Amino acid sequence: MSRRFDHFLAIDWSGAKGARHKGIALAIADADGGPPVLVDAPKRGWSREDVLAILRDDLPANTLVGMDLGIALPFADCGAFFPGWEDSPPDAKSLWALIDAICAGEPHLGSGPFVDHPDIAPFYRRHNGREGARFRCDGAFHGRGRFRVAEQVQAAMGCRPYSNFNLVGAAQVGKSSLTGMRVLHRLAGTLPVWPIDPLPETGSAIVEIYTTIAAMAAGRGVSASKIRDREQLDAALAQLGSEGLGGTGPVDDHSSDALLTAAWLRAVAHDTAIWQPPALTPEVARTEGWTFGAI
Question: What domain of life (predicted)?
Answer without folding.
Answer: Bacteria
